Amino acid sequence: MNSATGIVAVATEAGVSVSTVSQVLSGKRPVSAATRSRVEAAIEKLNYRPHPGARSLRSQRTESVALIVPDITNPFYPLVAVGIQDILMPQGYLLSVNDVALPSRTVSETLRHVLARRVDGIVLTTYGCTPADLELIAQSGTQVVALGQDIGVSGSDYVDVDEAAGIGSVVEHLLGNGFRRIAFVGGEREDFTSSLRHSGYREALLSAGLGVDDELSVFTSFTRDGGAAGARRLLELDTLPDAIVCANDLIAIGVIDALRARGISIPGTVAVTGYDDIEAAGLITPALTTVDNPAREIGRTSARLLLDRLNGSVDNVTRHVRLSQHLVIRESSTVVPH
């Protein structure tokens, strides 16, 4: 059905004006529930599908949103993308996923490409972001939702979980099982998320009246290889840790690789925990104790916040949504050390 004639046919079928049909399609102006229902029924009956190009020209929008993440091979981020699509696709938006594979691509380079394509909105992690990157976003006027922290851009929103509390619950669990020499393997030292999770580790030990031994904290990358490298550094210590808290599940899997290569029993000699609860966490042996980080709901929530911005239904005040998480106890941490 031709878009121009089609919208007239929908209006005639529903008994409303063409402008009312346009308002239902765009969602920019309020329409009564009864009228909306008649228009939607007419659209369904006539199988009307507005042409995306024509709609974009009228609205001066591209109906596209960019997601910028540090590592799309990390199973956490595809779930975030799926959550965003859950909300945006029914509204006619196309999501592009952009991997900032530092150091081969910088956030600045990715942002310039994304903004040049006039996306309507951006969802991004702040990994690798510089003040110049944030200024570029601010100057563009593009609607933004950040994952993990407030980026300080007027009119932006952010979604997070309590990273420190999540790691704290892991440490408390280990202490309750009798582990005392607890190490930490994090991502890059300068990374905001890695720093928050390391703070949670330290705070939990101090709250339990234990000292913090700096030689038990190792920083690497949020990858399986990074976890293996971090574990090998801990294995060089005169006294092994009896538990290793990892800043994400990929690191934890790498730690398990390195421990097994040395013939070290898990959790009999060293317990291992992760963070995120990716699918692999429940599939490896031993199954990994971790923190359920609600990736798909993070995506959905960020998309809802972004849609509010795109529809003009909120002012420039920054909104913050904090989602809940919980400890998932599995076999990798449940043996009390001798």
Automatic annotation (TrEMBL):
Keyword ATP-binding belongs to the record: no
UniProt keywords, alphabetically: DNA-binding, Transcription, Transcription regulation
SUPFAM superfamilies recorded: lambda repressor-like DNA-binding domains, Periplasmic binding protein-like I
Pfam families assigned to the protein according to its UniProt record, in alphabetical order: LacI (PF00356), Peripla_BP_3 (PF13377)
Listed PROSITE patterns: HTH_LACI_2
Gene3D superfamilies per UniProt: 3.40.50.2300, lambda repressor-like DNA-binding domains
Protein name according to UniProt: HTH lacI-type domain-containing protein
